[in-house]
């Protein structure tokens, strides 16, 4: 296929998965040199970009059980999660793909369907993008644009001493799924369905963010847990100029039975995590409930320091360049 045919295939596959390429906020969608979007009056724009690269984020061998659609759902979920972390509503997305010459027939359509699945669930139109050939391997970048009422975006800074710390769901599941695969586990084992789904099909917490934005009591600081609690919590604490104190027993860790099968400590797995794409939120105690798990608090102290069970945090989360 030439470039034009590939673009038409991607757009058709995205729409077949339920996503749109037009909408009330889309003045001009795919087909021109750039898209035109119209944010609601009184709102600020939120813009983020995330890239997924073969052998760094996704192994081609995984397509044997997850399909190439898994590459699309994984990449799109990561990007959309950044909008949830800011308390933003999706406005539009740009999809850029780097395609190796040896990509199997049908893989491009599968990837586009995976992206379309996530965009459809988020109510986010695909408004453009780019295709390029790259012999080094497969790469996917999704730029996402959102909007939030002026002055209401959640930042990493803004938390106050005494604020409680909450996470929006299980931590460490994606890491556990990755460890299972790296140890030669059978991806067809139904006992491992949840960890593998967390790894391949992350669900950005946009609906939860929407409810919290509309609530009487809202978070004062937030970020999404893409690199693990051990790396992301110090970032929030440092930005807010506070120390964090958490309790390992309160962490929503992966099932102990599955951890034991791999010789992994559940609390350590929850701390290291990575690619969970849950939200970490700081705010008043009244935020409790509505899927939020209280794991600790922010207090006066050394900015960015984290204590776990009253001891300094001694491990770090994921770092691409470590």
Map the helices and strands.
Blueprint: H1 3-16, E1 26-28, E2 36-37, E3 43-53, H2 63-66, H3 69-85, E4 89-99, H4 107-122, E5 126-133, E6 139-149, E7 164-167, H5 173-182, H6 193-200, H7 206-214, E8 221-224, H8 229-240, E9 243-246, H9 256-262, H10 266-272, E10 279-283, E11 293-299, E12 306-308, E13 311-312
Parallel strand pairs: 4-5, 9-12
Antiparallel strand pairs: 1-2, 3-6, 4-6, 7-10, 7-11, 8-10, 9-11, 12-13
Helix pairs in contact: 1-4, 3-4, 3-7, 5-6
In short:
This protein has 322 residues and is an alpha+beta fold. It is built from 10 helices and 13 strands. The protein has 2 domains: 3-149, PurM-like, N-terminal domain (60s Ribosomal Protein L30, Chain: A, 2-Layer Sandwich); 164-312, Phosphoribosyl-aminoimidazole Synthetase, Chain A, domain 2 (Alpha-Beta Complex).
What does this protein look like?
With 322 residues, the protein is α+β, with helices and mostly antiparallel strands. It has two domains: 3-149, PurM-like, N-terminal domain (60s Ribosomal Protein L30, Chain: A, 2-Layer Sandwich), CATH 3.30.1330; 164-312, Alpha-Beta Complex (Phosphoribosyl-aminoimidazole Synthetase, Chain A, domain 2). It contains ten helices and 13 strands. The strands form three sheets. Strands 8-10-7-11-9-12-13 form a seven-stranded mixed beta sheet, with helices on both faces. β12 and β13 form a beta hairpin. The longest helix is centred in the first third of the chain and has 17 residues, at 69-85. The radius of gyration is 20 Å and the shape is globular. The chain starts with a helix and ends in a 10-residue tail after the last strand.
């Amino acid at each position: 296929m030439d470039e034009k045919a590939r673009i038409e295939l991607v757009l058709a596959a995205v729409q077949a998965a339920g996503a749109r390429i037009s909408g009330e906020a889309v003045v001009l969608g795919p087909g021109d040199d750039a898209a035109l979007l119209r944010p609601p009056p009184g709102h600020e724009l939120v813009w983020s970009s995330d890239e997924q690269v073969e052998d760094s984020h996704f192994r081609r061998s995984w397509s044997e059980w997850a399909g190439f659609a898994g590459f699309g759902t994984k990449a799109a979920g990561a990007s959309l999660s950044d909008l949830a972390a800011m308390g933003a509503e999706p406005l539009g997305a740009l999809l850029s793909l780097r395609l190796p010459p040896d990509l199997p027939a049908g893989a491009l359509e599968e990837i586009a369907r995976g992206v379309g699945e996530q965009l459809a669930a988020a109510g986010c139109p695909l408004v453009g993008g780019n295709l390029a050939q790259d012999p080094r391997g497969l790469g996917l970048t999704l730029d996402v644009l959102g909007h939030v009422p002026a002055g209401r975006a959640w930042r990493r800074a803004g938390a106050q001493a005494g604020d409680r710390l909450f996470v929006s769901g299980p931590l460490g599941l994606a890491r556990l799924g990755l460890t299972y695969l790296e140890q030669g586990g059978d991806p067809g084992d139904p006992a491992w369905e949840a960890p593998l789904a967390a790894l391949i099909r992350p669900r950005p917490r946009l609906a939860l963010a929407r409810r919290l934005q509309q609530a009487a009591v809202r978070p004062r600081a937030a970020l999404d847990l893409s690199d693990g609690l051990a790396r992301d919590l110090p970032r929030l604490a440092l930005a807010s100029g506070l120390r964090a104190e958490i309790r390992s027993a309160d962490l929503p860790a992966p099932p102990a039975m599955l951890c034991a099968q791999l010789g992994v400590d559940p609390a350590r797995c929850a701390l290291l995590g990575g690619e969970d794409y849950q939200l970490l939120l700081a705010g008043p105690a009244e935020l409790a409930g509505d899927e939020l798990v209280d794991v600790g608090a922010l207090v006066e102290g050394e900015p960015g320091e984290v204590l776990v069970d009253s001891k300094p945090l001694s491990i770090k989360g994921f770092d691409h360049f470590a």
